[in-house]
């Protein structure tokens, strides 16, 4: 396909912060990749290079944040030549691509939810999308409907289910006086913890634990909107480590 105009739209939800949403490329150096990186949406686009390779056409635009919240997000990409409108959840960003070409020349297939392994370093370092998509529309083609009716030929559809499974997570609500106490693991020399949280309060204690044998403690808290980790270790010279983010 060699197009002057493109309109691509879809909705997605995921709890993963990385993943390729769709990808297409061509032999003239053209490519378009929409992906999640660190829970942000990144669009990479190149409308081609000349034979000398002197025209630098790579363009990258980042929008949004915290998109791994398992809520539905809508994307619309409208391209007319080098002019692009990228809309995420009704917030539109307008930009113009680098280079001097107007046509997107895709010789190979377009893939949704991942990209084929091409041997290039960029392909094997990217994760496939893990989550749900709906209302995928590419230049007037309802991709979701065509895939469900098996009308995409040729196509390679692997491990797709046409339903969206909700994650089995159980949230816990804490008020100002409640807390949850769980038993530790005294024989372990590794301390590992992970959790998701959401709060409007700028201050609060998230986690506290004493190490066995009076070796110290670890504390995770929010202080004026920043998350801080404090590790106190006895019996060593540098007995306190503070990390803030």
Radius of gyration from the CA trace? 24 Å
Number of helices: 2
Strand order of the largest sheet: 9-8-7-2-12-13
Would you identify the regions where 5 or more consecutive residues have pLDDT less than 50?
none
What is the CATH class of the largest domain?
Mainly Beta
Structural description of this entry:
The protein is 4% helix and 40% strand. The protein contains 2 helices and 17 strands. The strands form 4 sheets. Strands 9-8-7-2-12-13 form a 6-stranded antiparallel beta sheet. A 5-stranded antiparallel beta sheet has the order 6-5-4-3-11, with no helix packed on it. A 4-stranded antiparallel beta sheet has the order 14-15-16-17, with no helix packed on it. A hairpin with a 5-residue loop joins strand 3 and strand 4. The two termini are 46 Å apart. It has 245 residues and is mainly beta. Pfam families: Laminin_G_2 (PF02210). This is CNTP2 protein. It comes from Poecile atricapillus (Black-capped chickadee).
């Amino acid at each position: 396909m060699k197009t002057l105009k493109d309109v691509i739209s879809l909705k997605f939800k995921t709890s993963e912060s990385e993943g390729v949403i769709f990808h297409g490329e061509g032999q003239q150096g053209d490519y378009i990749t929409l992906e999640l990186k660190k829970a942000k949406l990144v669009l990479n686009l190149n409308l081609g290079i000349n034979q000398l390779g002197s025209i630098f056409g790579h363009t990258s635009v980042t929008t949004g944040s915290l998109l791994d919240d398992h809520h539905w997000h809508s994307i619309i990409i409208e391209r007319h030549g080098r002019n692009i409108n990228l809309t995420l959840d009704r917030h539109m960003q307008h930009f113009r691509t680098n280079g001097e070409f107007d046509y997107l020349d895709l010789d190979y297939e377009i893939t949704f939810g991942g990209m084929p392994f091409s041997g290039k370093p960029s392909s094997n370092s990217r994760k496939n999308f893990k989550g749900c998509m709906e209302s995928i529309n590419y230049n007037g083609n309802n991709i979701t409907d065509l895939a469900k009716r098996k009308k995409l030929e040729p196509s390679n559809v692997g491990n797709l289910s046409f339903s969206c499974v909700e994650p089995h997570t159980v949230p816990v609500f804490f008020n100002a006086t409640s807390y949850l106490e769980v038993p530790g693991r005294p024989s372990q020399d590794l301390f590992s913890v992970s959790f998701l949280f959401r709060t409007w309060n700028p201050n609060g204690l998230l986690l506290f634990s004493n190490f066995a044998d009076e070796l110290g403690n670890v504390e995770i808290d929010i202080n004026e909107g920043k998350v801080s980790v404090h590790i106190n270790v006895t019996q060593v010279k540098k007995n306190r480590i503070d990390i803030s983010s």
